[in-house]
Amino acid sequence: MSEPVRLALANGAVLLLREDHANPSIAFRGSVRAGGAYGALGVAEFAARLLLRGTRTRTAAQVSDAVENVGAALGAANGVESAAIDGRCTRETLKTTLTILTECLAGPSFPAAEVEKVRGEILGDLRAQQDDTRRAAMRRLLELVYPSGHPYRRDPKGDERTAAGVPRRDVKAFHEAHYGAAGLVVAFSGDVGEATFRSTVAAAFEELDGGRAPAPVPVARAPRTGSALVPMPHKSQADFVAGRIAPSRSHPDYYAVNLANVLFGRIGLYGRLGTQVRDNLGLAYYSYSGLESRHAAGHWYVSAGVNPKNLAKAVAAIRAEMERLGAEPFADTEVADGKEHLVGSLQVTLERNAEYAAALHDIEYYGLGNDFLDRYPGIVRGLDPNVVRRKAVEYFDPDACSWVASGPVKGVDLAF
Length: 416
Hints:
Elements: E1 5-8, E2 14-19, E3 26-32, H1 43-50, H2 60-69, E4 73-78, E5 83-89, H3 94-106, H4 112-130, H5 133-145, H6 160-165, H7 168-178, E6 185-190, H8 194-206, E7 227-231, E8 238-246, H9 254-265, H10 267-280, E9 286-293, E10 298-306, H11 311-327, H12 332-349, H13 353-365, H14 372-381, H15 385-395, E11 402-407
Parallel strand pairs: 2-6, 7-11
Antiparallel strand pairs: 1-2, 3-5, 3-6, 4-5, 8-10, 8-11, 9-10
């Protein structure tokens, strides 16, 4: 697998390319450090949603029509650390598509009417989220896991109060402060040659102002524990989550913890957790684990949706599976299967241009090195099974986790 082409522009933007002429399409994925961690609560959400809704020279409808007229696609979305951009086009429409994208990045106009439309969308999303037992439980868990004031503990969309009050001037100021080329990463995969990449693509992004380099998100190291019930008496399902702070993407423990997580609650029928709690005991509609690792920290969690009458039994079963990792650690065959799953799933993912562009973006975003895709199979296959087993016991310790249940749970006595 050849290394991608990497261009570091003078204004701070980094562009990456993987050529693939097997089909006449180009996919790209990018980000700018302008997520919810960098501004007042909710403002970044408005900025990202409004990015493609009008510029100094085009209305929202004209931006949409211009993209549609060339058969391209553009999108923007807010996240905890970054605002993501993505799209697709062809070699023939590449220049036009990038002209529209960079115009939106450099000069969104934030029309008042569009601001109010977005406000309504965000408020609708927040209300739907509050009525979703799984999302309500996870939101409360992050408030327990991360330290007070840390940006990872809050929803980037904010809450109904903040969304209702965000003024246009704050959105405009946030864009001016955080949407410069410094910290911008855009990766391309598809039917574009290196010469075009170094000329047409680079020229489009060279026009962006550099801005200031993004400040690092504060590190969250100290684990916090707690428990909470989120009463939603009108719901028929209860959801349960437990979790704790986990390694950042660059932490030395990341690869071992990631493999342990795959074995515990992801592979096959959701690993040991899904096999025991859902399939063998029949205590959950679903049960799985997840690992979210970012620049400053991450969090590991287990999640289950259950019939409220089975909630206590399901919680006990999940805790038992976590405790069993010490008494019955992962077998060598489990670890070997998990390694091949991780290597093979990445290879399958890289068969598609959009996913390949996303992988290239993440490699640059987390500073993993331009040759990472060549090194990755060796990194995974070289993990010591004993280290994987130890890290599972260390990070999946139920006593180090916070525990949350949502749904018709008022008055429920749970032994968290």
